[in-house]
Amino acid sequence: MTISFSISDEVAGIARRTAEFVRDVVIPEERACGGSVHDAPEPLRHRLQQAARDAGVFAPHVPREFGGLGLDLRGQAVVFEEAGYSLLGPLAMNCAAPDEGNTHLLHTVATAEQRERYLRPLAAGEVRSCFAMTEPAPGAGSDPRALATTATRVAGGWRIDGRKWFISGADGAAFAICMARTSGTPGDAGGATMFLVDAGTPGMKLVRNLETLDEGLFGGHSELAFDGCLVGDEQVLGEVDAGFAYAQVRLGPARLTHCMRWLGAARRARDIALERAASRSAFGRPLAELGMVQQMLADTEIDIEASRALLWRACWELDQGRPGAQHTSITKTFVSEAVGRIVDRAVQVCGALGISADLPLSRLLREVRPFRIYDGPSETHRWAIARRAVRSFT
Ligand SMILES: Cc1cc2nc3c(=O)[nH]c(=O)nc-3n(C[C@H](O)[C@H](O)[C@H](O)COP(=O)(O)OP(=O)(O)OC[C@H]3O[C@@H](n4cnc5c(N)ncnc54)[C@H](O)[C@@H]3O)c2cc1C
């Protein structure tokens, strides 16, 4: 088995343009959203996305037939890391969560009509979307089988009832992809279906926007209520009762693309720490010459290299069409914890300055923490990794 990590000239060129775009255009805009991307204004998104088009870096993951650059996952790994150097980079390039994952899901599962109606405007950045799976207890969370939202057959379509929360980007989204139970009861392994629900559909209501530790995702995270929400048969995404399988189609790559973007953010924290360690002196020498600071800097280099190696390997697995579940779980668990360590060390190296708003580190510290919970908490992944390891051994 030959595993190829070679980077084509095309990908290298897009990555270089992305790094320049983020440095010259995006980072100067960071102050424009007053520190919170959750509440950033829609005109900022449009302005940044136009600038990304002008720079030739818009929608790197989107298939060419829908106006993107058509990169495979290995190409995305290189480019998304550069985009993630600023919290606004992925938004500018239309490769932020949850739209990026929804684009992949729609391209893989949607009918030709659904692609024109939902995917084309999403890929072009004309609209945003959300993915509504998680529910308040006792509903779906780490265990998707607990899915309690129901979709009941009615003449010509379905009636959706239930509650969702922590739905990223729901406020202002043009449509939601909602997971609902069409057969069985909570706890059953099957029986879920995905529905495309347009904003403004009677019966789908935004209950509230949640106040959260992180503030780096456009639109924030919302609670949604579905009360007798009627959708037509043409709004079923894929096959009825096949929703859990489609969720894996979305989640496998989406876990990796989160790792790519956060690795870019961690690299920024690393660069800030290195700059500070070289320029600030204590006890008669630069911080960079103090052994325990060197240990922090070295551990960060190790975390970055190990994260990237795991990530590229998992991307290669998925690009080959292999299942890759074990590789994506290992990568997601390692990278989500490594980026936390990297940002935390950068704060420590910078001292009090590190926790101030004069540097982006305190913001990054808050942004990377939830990644150990979404796309599967570390514990759920470790549980799955161990079970697969035991199965392969026995
Ligand atoms: C910032 C953010 C954005 C999100 N965006 C979305 C979104 O857009 N759409 C959406 O549908 N959801 C979203 N979520 C929700 C996310 O998917 C869930 O939080 C996640 O699936 C965990 O579910 P839960 O919060 O209900 O935790 P629970 O299921 O209640 O789990 C709580 C804890 O139990 C432990 N645990 C779980 N399983 C195991 C196990 N097998 N072994 C040992 N311990 C275990 C873990 O420590 C876990 O953190 C988002 C969450 C966050 C924080």
From TrEMBL:
It comes from the Bacteria. SUPFAM superfamilies: Acyl-CoA dehydrogenase C-terminal domain-like, Acyl-CoA dehydrogenase NM domain-like. Its cofactor is FAD. GO terms for cellular component: cytoplasm. Keywords: FAD, Flavoprotein, Oxidoreductase. Residues 130-212 form the Acyl-CoA oxidase/dehydrogenase middle domain. Belongs to the acyl-CoA dehydrogenase family. This is Acyl-CoA dehydrogenase. It comes from Phytohabitans rumicis.
